[in-house]
Each structure stands twice: as C-alpha cells, then as structure tokens.
Amino acid sequence: MRRGAPQDQELVGPGPPGRGSRGAPPPLGPVVPVLVFPPDLVFRADQRSGPRQLLTLYNPTGTALRFRVLCTAPAKYTVFDAEGYVKPQSCIDIVIRHVAPIPSHYDVQDRFRIELSEEGAEGRVVGRKDITSILRAPAYPLELQGQPDPAPRPGPPAGTPPPTARHFQEHPRQQLATSSFLLFLLTGIVSVAFLLLPLPDELGSQLPQVLHVSLGQKLVAAYVLGLLTMVFLRT
C-alpha cells in the first residue's frame, strides 16, 4: 500500500465531484455501498500531534475490494495507505493528516472521494463516496496557548481559615468528642452496675456486704442513666 499525498485524478477543481474534464464515469453494474466513518472530516488546528483524523472504511461484501482515496486539494493533506485492498467482511483504518494548518485554510471545505473497484489491474468501479473536510481554527490564539490562565480564581471567603489552620482547629474538637463519649459510656456502665447490685437488707445474695448499695445510691444511678439516655437520643 502506498503512502503519501492523496491523488487528484478524480477531483481536481472546486466544481461538483465527478464533473469536469477529468471526471470519471459513473460505475456500471451492481453498486457497492461505501461505508465510511466518520461521514465528515473535521480537523483542529490546535491538536498537539498535528491535525489528523482516522477514517474507517468497511467492506460489506464477500469479496476483496480495491480502494483509492482522492482529494480536491492533495497538497494540503497526507494520506497513509491512500490505496490498497479491503478484505471481505472487514474494515481498514486510513490516517489522514492536514499538513498546512495555516489561517488562510481555516473553514475552507475540501472533498475526499473514496472509490471502490473490483480486485484486479483493470477492475471496474463498483462504488464511490464523497466526504467533506474542513479545518477549524484554534479555540484560543496560538500565542496564548501554553500560558497560565490570566483570569484570577475566586479564593475562600474572608472569614474562612486556611485549610491547615482549619485542620488543626477541628482535630482537638474530634479528640474532645471522643473523650466525652468514652466518659459517658463509662458512667452509664457504672450506673447500670449500681442498679444491678443488691440492697443491704436483701436476703439470698451471695455477694459480699461491701458490694451492697443503698436505695438512695440506686436512685442516683437511675437518674444519671436517664440523663445519659437523653444525651444519646439528642445526638
């Protein structure tokens, strides 16, 4: 397969494709649909790797077909694999590169023609399709590309502390909340233990007398346990 600039044997002027002194006659016999994607080529002048597009050509038939890529402006493009063969029921990728991305070529439409013919030296043309090509100007001027954005970005509100200071302010609060939770939990466990201990005059208890609590102590433990329950429910 040959690489290089696309040929201009079919499309050589600004007129409609297929007309003119060098226009090709329409295909005779069965016509094969030319399936290509994308249907139009849009090049961007600000592409980092250079303005290029990938054109995929499909062969829906059961036989191999020969293809050619023609163009109205061959000096502006380089087509890799400008002609070759497509296997049956398969596809091939054609890389097209715009080699003249200058301002005078912005928004100028060119035309490519994909021509399919039967396999062989003098195979008849069985299908052709024309697609348009256009070069778009950069989104930003070239002299501004690669420079930092001059527009200032909004900063945090005046009363908002820096992230580092905020981190150091929130960290002690988290430690305080953790220690308070542990204190409340320990107090609740002690209160429940007081409620489970027997009274001094309770008979049948196997615990020593020192672990017997009075009724007043149980009332205080029940009151503290109620307060802790309210605190946990509110949080």
pLDDT under 50 segments (min length 5)?
5-10, 12-22
Query: In percent terms, what proportion of residues is strand?
Result: 25-35%
Largest sheet: 9 strands, mixed
Structural class: alpha+beta
Bin the helical content.
Answer: 10-25%
Q: What integer value in Å does the Rg equal? A: 42 Å
Tell me what you see in this structure.
This protein has helices spanning about 165-195, 215-235; strands at about 1-5, 35, 40-45, 50-60, 65-70, 75-85, 90-100, 110-120, 125-135. The protein is of the alpha+beta class and about 240 residues long. The chain folds into two domains: about 1-140, Immunoglobulin-like (Sandwich), CATH 2.60.40; about 165-235, no CATH class. Strands 1, 2, 3, 4, 5, 6, 7, 8 and 9 form a nine-stranded mixed sheet that branches. A hairpin with a 3-residue loop joins strand 6 and strand 7 (about 90-100). Helix 1 (about 165-195) runs antiparallel to helix 2 (about 215-235). The longest helix is centred in the last third of the chain and has 34 residues, at about 165-195. The model is unreliable at about 5-10 and about 10-20 (pLDDT under 50).
Short description:
It is found in: Membrane. Helices cover 23% and strands 28% of the residues.
Record the SSE blueprint.
Blueprint: E1 2-4, E2 35-37, E3 41-44, E4 52-59, E5 65-71, E6 77-86, E7 90-98, E8 109-118, E9 125-136, H1 163-196, H2 215-234
Helix pairs in contact: 1-2
Domain MSP: 33-145
Region (Disordered): 1-25, 143-171
Subcellular location: Membrane
